[in-house]
Amino acid sequence: MSRLILFNKPYGVITQFSSDGKHATLKDFIPLPGIYPAGRLDTDSEGLLILTDDGALQHRISHPRHKLAKTYWAQVEGVPGEAALEQLRRGVDLGDFITRPAHARIIEEPAGLWPRTPPIRFRMHIPTAWIELVIQEGKNRQVRRMTAKIGFPTLRLIRCRIGDWNLDGLAPGNWREITSA
User: Fold this and answer.
1) 72 and 160 in contact (C-beta within 8 Å)?
2) Active site includes 42?
3) What CATH number is attached to the domain comprising 142?
4) How many domains in the chain?
5) Rounded mean pLDDT, 7-13
6) Which of these is catalytic: 20, 28, 42, 93?
């Protein structure tokens, strides 16, 4: 039976077990040998990271060919209107590639959201909004690039779901092992 670990990666943690000398690593939170992340999450992003000891399962989770949906909550600078959301839904030309169409909608601040350390920058005269974005890719800094391209830079980014797995009940820095099917 494969081991499958769900981890709520805090802001500032790098998605590797070896140290870079500057950031906390997965090793600082998960004392299990022989497991590896199925995909990555940028140092300045938070949320769900899946780890496993099964290379084939790791590939099925992380490879875009398998079309495993990834859901993000993005706090953006400004308040996007329907036209901006429609751009995300159609796909965004990022110069080096055009994203696949995404599901995008404005949401309230997610319930039970933990404070980020350090907090995001606050500007008195510029409002922020939360977007729920569901993509089936996951290229380097893709969500941040998408929101910036439509004129609403991401201030905070949290991955809350990968396929059927989610963050429910996992505080930042905590993990749990689940049964893999």
Assistant:
1) yes
2) yes
3) 3.30.70.1560
4) 2
5) 97
6) 42
